[in-house]
Amino acid sequence: MEAPEVLLDNSAAVYDYYLRHQQNRLRALVSYAVLARRYQPRISYAEGAKDQLNALMRSGRPVIYAINHLSENDPYTVAAAAWRSPLRRKIGRIRVLAKDELFTEPSQRAKVDMMGGIPVFRGKDHGLRAVNAAGQLMIDVAAGRLAAGDHLAIFPEGTCNDVDPATVQAVGSGIGHIAFRATKLGAPPVLVALAMSYGADARLASFHLRAPVLELPSRPAEIARFVKDELQQAVDAAIRAS
What we know:
Blueprint: H1 11-20, H2 25-39, E1 42-45, H3 49-59, E2 63-67, H4 74-83, E3 94-99, H5 106-114, E4 117-120, H6 123-126, H7 128-147, E5 151-154, H8 174-184, E6 190-197, E7 206-209, H9 220-241
Parallel strand pairs: 1-7, 2-5, 2-6, 3-4, 3-5
Antiparallel strand pairs: 6-7
């Protein structure tokens, strides 16, 4: 299937394509390994979390990773951290929600596609009313990928936190709706909060992974609030370790 142009007016074709798109797993593994050598992140875990994550990777359950957002380099440093953690087992099956402008230039799009990107048309860029229908399609695709066994990485703050890196900013209900719809599809996702702190050198970022949460609240808004609390605890731990 030919890749459609990523435009808001073309969102139905865009999301039909990304519902079926498959990454090149070998290329993804090589790219993640290269990034891990370049950035060399330091990783810490909540008590018992590393063993729980290893078991989770073997279980086949879909996972949503909630990640704080500090800079445009975050996807690369997160990829490096994934390579150096139990998440390595799922490289090539981790989808990432990414703003639509990253899919505009062909060579950039090829990289984002290889990393598992799914485009998001943001209200701050196009207007809230304009993106409503596309947003519903994006949620359906994200939930569908989870139901198919993929994992999903989300920066739930929606934009880079240039206000206070130590404080998680507002988390929209989108992550809650994705988890809610995946559950309706018979694939209740596990939540893992993953936080980073850059300190003085982004190449040596400090990452912290919380223990997996196997059961989430039942309503989208409650899930979003829960995600914010989990992510804040992960951010606090990443800062302490940096």
